[in-house]
Amino acid sequence: MIQTTHLFPVLDEKLIELLASLEPEEWNRPTLARLWTVKDVAAHLLDGNVRGLSLARDGHRLAPDREIHSYPDLVGYLNQLNADWTRATRRLSPRVLTGLLQTTGREYADYLATLDPHADAIFPVAWAGESTSPNWFHVAREYTEKWHHQQQIREAVGREGIMTREFFYPFIATLMRGLPHAYRHTTAPAGTAVRVVVDEGIGGAWCVVRGEERWQLAGTPPGAVHATLVVPPGIAWRLYTKGMTPEAALSRVHAEGDEALARVALSLVAVMA
């Protein structure tokens, strides 16, 4: 189990401090989030808070305006929701937006702390290929959303602050839970092991092993490691949240052993996209 609940108030406090320090022009700087500015990303973080409170805590659900039969259907629906919200919240001032983030962030963190970590979550972690997920994984997924969007803002305005062991390790450990799903179409003999290293003192190493029927995450490989991929943390967070393509990352990573097998790990996408 990856414990992240205690980090939400601390990470949110870092966000509020960051936003309060921005100059007016910095709110309009572009980010890795495609067409979104710093202000748009902040608004998206607000949406995460209020949508989570409304849906999960308050049981307020709005039926989709379309039929959803597949993962691409779900992604398309969520992308439209995100775009509609971001467009509407552009009328909010940075001061109002920051205040709302502070208030709702506190409420959302309080709500998440009440969940039984081992009970079934309201939504599964779809990017990990799960149809049912425990609450602790759902909460950790929410943490990765808050972490990587705040990091997008920090990169856009040149402010460091959360590329530390305290904040980064839970983020990357959660993302690595998606490795078996990334390898789902990769054929290999049972016992084949791939190691992914994202470290530099703030991350760690993870291993995915081919079982009789599917790939599984393993603490340590049962035998020899057949392929290793070393990804710098600064590349990993961009790559696995679709801020960088696998092709662009190739020259920044190092593969050992079966290089083709190692590079399958570049295809991991730990966001709904």
UniProtKB/TrEMBL annotation:
<dbReference type="InterPro" id="IPR024344">
    <property type="entry name" value="MDMPI_metal-binding"/>
</dbReference>
<feature type="domain" description="Mycothiol-dependent maleylpyruvate isomerase metal-binding">
    <location>
        <begin position="12"/>
        <end position="153"/>
    </location>
</feature>
<dbReference type="Pfam" id="PF11716">
    <property type="entry name" value="MDMPI_N"/>
</dbReference>
<protein>
    <recommendedName>
        <fullName>Mycothiol-dependent maleylpyruvate isomerase metal-binding domain-containing protein</fullName>
    </recommendedName>
</protein>
<dbReference type="GO" id="GO:0046872">
    <property type="term" value="F:metal ion binding"/>
</dbReference>
<dbReference type="InterPro" id="IPR017517">
    <property type="entry name" value="Maleyloyr_isom"/>
</dbReference>
<dbReference type="InterPro" id="IPR034660">
    <property type="entry name" value="DinB/YfiT-like"/>
</dbReference>
